[in-house]
Every structure is written in C-alpha cells, then in structure tokens.
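Morning. Coffee machine broken again, so started the prediction first thing and wrote up yesterday's gels while waiting. Chain of 267 residues, entered below exactly as on the submission form.
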Amino acid sequence: MSVWAGGTISERALCVLAPNASPMTLDGTNTWVLAEPGARRSVVIDPGPLDDGHLAAVLAAATAGDRAVGLVIVTHRHPDHTEGAAAFAELAQAPVRAVDPEFRERGGGGLSEGDRISVDGLDVQVLATPGHTSDSVTLLLPADRAILTGDTVLGRGTTVVAHPDGKLADYLASLERLHAMTPEPVAVVYPGHGPVLPHAGEAIGYYLKHRQERLQQVRAAVAAGDRTPRDVVERVYSDVDPVLWPYAEWSVAAQLEYLGVSIDQSG
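Came back before lunch.
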C-alpha cells in the first residue's frame, strides 16, 4: 500500500495533508486548494484541524504566486474538516461557506443543491449528498472531471454513516447519484481522506456493493437474535480492527434503523 502525502494533483488542484493521521482519518485530512492557472484567487476546501503548521501550509499553497484566498468551503461538520475553519478564515481574510450555519465565517453564506460557485474562472457545482452526515456535500469540478467528496467516499476503505445524524437511506441515494455521474461527467474522486481515486465509477460501485453486503450480514445477525449495535458489530465486523468498533456501531445503528429493527441500546 503506497503512502499518501498529498501534493499537486492537476493544474488546478493541490492537496495539503493535515498531520492528524489516525484509524478514522487515515493518512490525515485532505485540505484541497483549487485555482485556475494564472488566477488571482483560490478556493480552499476543508481547512482541517486547528493546527498552526497545517493552516500556515494551506495559506502558503493557497496564496502562491501572489494569489488571495477568494473562498473557503467545508464539505460537512466533522471537526477534522472544520476545526481550523474560523482561524483560517481570519488568516486568509476570506469567507467560509457551509451548509451548517455554525461554520459560516466572515459573511460566508450557505451551500445548497445546485449552487454554482465561480472564482476567477474556477467553476464548482454543489451537490447535496447527505448520509455520512446530514449536511454532507460533494463538489463537482467539471474541468478535472472530478468530485471532491469529503467523507462520502474515501480514498481507502469505506466510511461510516454517522448515526443518528447520518441516515443510510440518504447515503445509498447519494452513492447512487454519484455513481450515475460516472464516467461522464465524473472520472476521478478527490476524497477527504486518503489517495485520489482515478476510477470513480469502480470505487463508488464498490461502495454500493459493500453496503448491500453489510446489510445482508446485519439481517442475518438480527435473525440470529442480535439487537444491540455492539452485538451486531462483534458478529458482522469481526474483520475490522476492534479500535474502530465504536465507529462501526454508528453504521450498524443506521443499518438497523434502515431495516426497521428496534435498536436496543442497553448493551
């Protein structure tokens, strides 16, 4: 398995990797800097954790060549993507746009399905893709035939459905939507964690297949008498590092809700 370190991905996309590697964040949070070649302003996606060194590195990348930061966008509310947003907004003197009003800074507005964002020739389209969280968005970058997925699709492994905020029905619908966009207009995934996925259709198709397989396994666990998320995790996620089981319980709770099974939290 190759080590992911971020870097320049295309003539308009660069990833600055945050130093917050963990079992949940993989190599760390990917902060994306987008700008058209020769543009006077850039766009920063997911400033990441509140780490002075990381925010300084993002600012340096985003302002290279005497550029200014025109806009900051967050893909969803989780702290590893948003914790540094307010501080970065002040460093860059730039507004932050987000679905959740809590993360809007310096007059930045909301994000809604179908919004078109244009910054010095850079064109980005907002796609509402709830499921991982209720406020998750994906950003379509047509010039790269790429989508910036936050945690909806990761560069390695699979993501959690963060129950109760995240809903499995929403997540499956979001995956189906993104899969339908491949191979046109989408060929590549720029994820919130892990390496770039050059075959978007294949990657998202695997996600859909994996979710259906897990649902079948959860159905079998329920038929065997399991009712608490932890009981189901111990049976179904035995192939997963136990350090991740508390997070797997979120996905199991979401799956039980999706299947209409009453969730027993007593265990």
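The chain has one domain: 7-198. Going to sketch it on the whiteboard this afternoon.
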